[in-house]
Amino acid sequence: GENVPEFRAQYQITTVEGAELYYLQQSYQRMIGEPVVIAMTERLIIREMTVEDAEALWEIQNQEEVRRYTEDISEDRQTELEKHMAYVRHVYPMYGYGLWGVYRKEDGKLIGRCGIQDYEYDGVWEVELGYLLDPAEWGRGYAIEAVRAVIKYALDCMDIQSVLALIAPEN
Asked: How far apart are CA 147 and CA 155, in angstroms?
């Protein structure tokens, strides 16, 4: 993860011990700007978002029904676009996980996000599950389909032992 200017490289592999092919593949995909696919379900593709997804995500997040249940969204559009771009460039490569885009298979449209992130709960750091969907897509079973795929990925592929989900009762 260190920038090594004399080699003009984002990463330098000093040993391959412990490096799995999947990790190296993901690092390469991110380096060339290709989002890593996390899961494919019957109707959805869950993958890392790109900088180009910023505008579509803003349109989803800026709806009143979504804003009601999300705390960290600024009312300023430009601020949100910049936050998204920084997230894509830094969070996925650093952690290998995050909040991923949820896309319909039939047309590739971004309809929300779902993923895992670090969260401090009662003084303990946990892995938290989070999601949001475009209200136009509510009631179609997409949320449960995405959540199941993300939990399976976290448990099977990332060897995460438990996932915390916090939901406001009114949501």
From this structure: 12
